[in-house]
Queue: 2 jobs
Job 1
Amino acid sequence: MANQYVNLRNIRFLLHEVFQASDLQEIDRFSDYDQEAINFALDAAKQIGDQYLYPIHREMDKEKAYFQDGKVHTHPGLNKAIKAIADGGWINAHTDLEEGGQNMPLMVMNAGLFIFYAANSNAAPYAFLTQGAANLIRNFGDDNLKETFLDPMFSGEWQGTMALTEPQAGSSLSDLAASAKLMEDGSYAISGQKIYISGGDYAQVDNVIHLTLARIEGAPPGTHGISLFAVPKFRKENGALVSNNVTTAGIYGKMGQKGYVAAHLMMGEQGTCKGYLVGEEHKGLSYMFQLMNEARIGTGNLSAGTATAAFYASLQYARERPQGRHPDQKDPASPPELIIEHADVRRMLLFQKAVTEASLALVIQASKWADMAENQSGEAAENAHLLLELITPVVKSYPAEMGIESVSMGMQVLGGAGYTDDFPLEQYYRDIRVNSIYEGTSTIHGMDLLGRKVMQQKGKALRLLMELIQSDLKAGSRKGLASQAKKLQGAAMGLHEITMHLFKVASQKGARYFLADATIYLEAFSLAVVGWLWLKQMLVAEEKLENPNLSKEDKDFYLGKRLCGNYFFSYELNKINPLLSRLAESDGLTVELDTDWIN
């Protein structure tokens, strides 16, 4: 059990038995990805995690990144870890074979990323920021940009970032002030500041390419006047790299992820800073949303990985630490029990298992819909796209919000030891906390879900989701899961009814009342979706348990799935009821008040 941070058996279960990754072989692009090829990729990812990522996870926290003499210094093992990921083909795994990629389905790639994130949530994100930035150039850049930037980014030699946030704007992108002025050579002079830029600078990397939002002089106000630029730290002149006047003012002292740099960048303050237009003028935000949507699923995946590693750390402790006796053991001379024998510790471990395994299921389900939307055509692609759009706020927010709760529960399993840095739980807790803020706060995603996603095409995505849930509810009733199916049916019906109620609120009272409790709606919606994903897992487990020839290992695995599913339906799903009750009131308590009353 030592040093376990993921369970490959569970990853394979989700890919092969629950979500049928082999279905994707019907798509020509993914024809090579049979079960054997997928398992080979997962084993390769685990080897990288074991050798390059997990061993430096604690070290990157204790030997944190720092800013000195104008340079950002990081753990010496970081570059080796990024290169190992790149050399394994993971940064450009999803690209086409003729582009040097592997035609890898997102389902498989995100399963590999999950392993990396669980192994080291400080190091792995550097590589996959680069992946996202390179994908923007690949999809929207001209041939010159592709020739200049893609190879060194995919090889791990150059870092990529997403440079959106500014001091005065925060998440309000319509208020961006960074400017771009067209120059004679066709490039643009970029001027402005960007803050909280993850992976924004470090001395070990040869170059950093910032995918930057800015306004071209004379552009219209608001989000319609924003363009996207590739802004390198060093630009090429006469075949050599020279300073492009992207200056790091410093890095932020974060609560966690102390090995994962967040930089404050100044562009053009010490000379001309050249940016290269990606795509067309004024379409930058629509391009960036491609990366942002990838990053939102990536943040959910990062959260799932971090919480999973914390679960296995607390499980190991619970299996090794003797303390206390059962309430019916009155003899003080009797030996203490391992704490995993205590009912409440088991409850806490089951909570962690329920959250983490559902979080990974969310990521893989979303990834399958993304593969279908990207590589199929007609109604199948359209429906997959709608479902992906609908579920993205959940994939980003549930693993982040509940992952925080899960790691906190893991600390509780360790008791006082969990609060010390002798054990990794306190680091996991600090590291995961930011994920509910990354790529939009949960409030933003609640408003996106309720205010936009559920209403797309007159609610078609929600209808499609409810049809999928209903199909598995019928299967559950036949497979001895009638009790769980009944509970999920009630949750789904309650969610549908409250959605219709809130639409009436919108028409009668307006957007402020409609969206006032959007975050609570997101929480309720997430519980229903996660309940569905647990039912799907239980359906497979029940079918497998009908086989009398299962090995003990397999039987224990499927019984564990049954147990954890029962935990979710008994302890977690019923939490939806008070949320729905609150949403039904729609009294505008947080709308109709004077801010002076908050004192």
Job 2
Amino acid sequence: MQEIINILLVDDESRNLDILDAILSDPGYRLLRADNADTALRTLLENDVAAIVLDIKMPNVSGFELAQLIKGTKKFRQIPIVFLTAYLVDDKDVITGYGAGAVDYLTKPVNPEILRHKLSVFAELFRKTRALAELNENLESRVQERTLKLEKSEAALREANEQKDRFLATLAHELRNPLAPLRTGLDILLGESEQTPTAAHTLALMNRQVDHMVRLIDDLLDVSRISRGTLEMRKKHVDLAEVIEHALETMRPALVRRKQSAEVRAEVPVTAMVDATRVAQIVGNLVNNASKHSAIGASIQVVLRLEGDDATIQVIDDGVGIAPDQLARVFEMFTKIERSLPGTNDGLGIGLALSRQLAELHGGSLRAASAGEGKGAAFTLTVPVGIAENAGANATGESKAPPVTTSKLSIVVIEDNEDAAEMLATWLTGLGHQVKVAHTGPAGVALVVEVRPDVVLCDVGLPELSGTEVCRQIVAAVTPTPLMIALTGWGMEEDRRRTAEAGVRHHLVKPVDLEKLRAILSDVGRRP
């Protein structure tokens, strides 16, 4: 049903209003009458009017003056006004009328067709404007509803993200605890002077894998770093050929299962300033990708080159290849490349995307090339070599530091994990320190009060009494206060803040870097 439109007719002569009524009689119009300015203004306030037909010559307030009043009011200034006059108007009057807000002039007696046509245009414009306003109002309402839903969804996502972070922190803590005695035990065994070649090789391999595991656990604490590509780079000067070999050792079981081989060709020795673990991770991802998309028994080539100031590591396979239109997508997160061959679209689509991020964090790049499906693929990692330093560094980029000598210290270890406590005590005793162990918080406090040691190594996640509370009680009860060192699987900033407030000087995350701990103890031993 068509909307009824209000038209305001203003004339001081009632018979003129009757004529206008007769001319404009239409089911779609509601004709409102006013015979003076006051009535016209009151009618405007009480009704939503589409157009005004206004006589110029009226007593007291003329049509021009009434038009100026109407146009001076913000609510009414958009209403079109058609002036009616029984007299010929000169240009000055016309200009005055237009200045007062008129849109047209009609001379009495009015041509009915012209008047009806003009007002039909205004009525249709009013209907469309009204419909647009309603649409805009509905749109605003929908936007508000959608905004509210988005805010709720965002709040839910924030809560889910916080829960994820708490879960990952807890998971990392639980994984670090069993790694701690493994790390310490490996360091003790690696320090043994007499080892068979097989034992030495096995221990070195285990040592690298524990290091790799520790780094992966560290990543669990801040998944957002991965998504933003902001992982911390721990760069050292390393022999890239040996980094490649370490990566291939990790991949060896998978290659053996598929009866594949990986041949490394190093055109020249290349030492670069990189994070060895991350470069090994990239190479491992590329070799794994090549292995998955190559036939049983295939050979994979890994070529190391020096090109100006850059080192390139290229992984080449003769596998299923990549269609030209898919090359740009291979590094997109969670993307699976569509291939016509069955069984070649497995995986989560994370490895290559993460590898490119890691390459870019090195200031380098990772590119893919392929002649097409069935024609193999080549992935090229490029990293800057950097300024050559530490030429005496060993194969992993870690120079053999001279042994650190420390004075004999009295040390109390407070650790509820008996295996971890035993390994740590064994290592400390091997350095010549006097070590006593407690497995609970209260027992640890009592032991420290009794022994008054130089150093306290305290686990944070203790039963009965938390490690932070243990440290507070020791600081309050023992003078001079021993050096307080926290050993913990919790490594977030909030955890470090809490231990610092409890009097802890060093917050070491499990599995503890024993060289770092040795340096801390050495510094204690040198104090006067």
